[in-house]
């Protein structure tokens, strides 16, 4: 269950057709770009969990965030959990490279069942945009909670605001392109949720859902990533990759004018493309919800 959980993203839920050797570097780059947002979230979590013994990243992808946890909590053992063995290989290599290998483990399998293979309960269980891939999110939260030690914290990152990369009117095509993409993605996301095995419709009241899972809701907070224009090359490359995948995945739902605009935006030779224009930025907000297993 590998997820692009580090940014507003074009979701991929049929993992059978993905080449993780290709996706791995892309997911790593995206997570590294969003590292300041994750670091602020971890600083907030550290106020609640000062000395966790075991931290579990449920749906870790290539391990960028899991390694940030290892850095933030130097006394903790960290386990990265994901359905993609190739991505977990990248996570292990990253941990070794950063000097965390002696307290970093991986667990391969599908959530939430694979969490039953943990050797002991987690003091902090982090799930960044992995819960919404489960048909029954309420049951998923209950399963997450059962893998917590008494007094342990569950932190889920779900929701926030759509990211923005360009002004509303950036001079080519019809203004408001990103808002139209948001609307298409929202419809796609709703259909994805409806098509999941065992799908259950839930009101996304996270405090109520966490409480219903037998946990004590402790708070929600949103964290901002603000990379202002003019963007450095690595930010431009990220935006170009994101827009390319929007065009490829949602192209049929976009009008001809918007598709033509996207073609120009991702063209490295076009002066109006994101590789060359001076007004490219990244502005994103992700929300974290926390709860504690009663002692």
TrEMBL record:
<keyword id="KW-0489">Methyltransferase</keyword>
<dbReference type="Pfam" id="PF08242">
    <property type="entry name" value="Methyltransf_12"/>
</dbReference>
<feature type="domain" description="Methyltransferase type 12">
    <location>
        <begin position="56"/>
        <end position="154"/>
    </location>
</feature>
<dbReference type="InterPro" id="IPR013217">
    <property type="entry name" value="Methyltransf_12"/>
</dbReference>
<keyword id="KW-0808">Transferase</keyword>
<dbReference type="GO" id="GO:0008168">
    <property type="term" value="F:methyltransferase activity"/>
</dbReference>
<protein>
    <submittedName>
        <fullName>Class I SAM-dependent methyltransferase</fullName>
    </submittedName>
</protein>
<dbReference type="GO" id="GO:0032259">
    <property type="term" value="P:methylation"/>
</dbReference>
<dbReference type="InterPro" id="IPR029063">
    <property type="entry name" value="SAM-dependent_MTases_sf"/>
</dbReference>
């Amino acid at each position: 269950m590998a997820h692009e959980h580090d940014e507003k993203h074009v979701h991929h839920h049929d993992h059978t057709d993905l080449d993780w050797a290709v996706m791995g570097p892309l997911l790593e780059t995206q997570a590294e770009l969003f590292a300041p947002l994750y670091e602020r979230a971890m600083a907030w979590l550290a106020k609640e969990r000062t000395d966790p013994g075991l931290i579990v990243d449920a749906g870790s992808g290539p391990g960028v965030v899991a390694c940030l946890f290892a850095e933030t909590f130097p006394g903790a053992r960290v386990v990265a959990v994901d359905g993609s063995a190739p991505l977990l290989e990248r996570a292990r290599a990253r941990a070794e490279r950063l000097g965390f290998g002696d307290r970093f483990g991986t667990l391969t399998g599908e959530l939430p069942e694979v969490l039953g293979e943990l050797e002991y309960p987690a003091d902090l269980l982090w799930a960044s945009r992995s819960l919404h891939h489960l048909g029954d999110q309420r049951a998923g939260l209950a399963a997450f909670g059962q893998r917590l030690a008494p007094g342990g914290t569950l932190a889920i990152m779900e929701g926030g605001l759509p990211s923005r990369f360009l002004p509303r009117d950036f001079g080519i095509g019809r203004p408001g392109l990103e808002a139209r993409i948001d609307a298409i993605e929202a419809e796609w996301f709703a259909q994805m949720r409806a098509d999941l095995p065992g799908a259950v419709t839930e009101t996304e009241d996270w405090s109520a859902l966490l409480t219903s899972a037998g946990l004590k809701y402790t708070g929600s907070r949103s964290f901002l990533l603000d990379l202002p224009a003019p963007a450095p090359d690595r930010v431009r490359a990220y935006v170009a990759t994101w827009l390319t995948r929007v065009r490829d995945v949602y192209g049929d739902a976009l009008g001809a004018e918007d598709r033509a605009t996207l073609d120009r935006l991702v063209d490295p030779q076009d002066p109006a493309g994101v590789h060359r224009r001076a007004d490219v930025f990244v502005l994103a907000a992700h929300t974290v919800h926390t709860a504690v297993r009663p002692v």
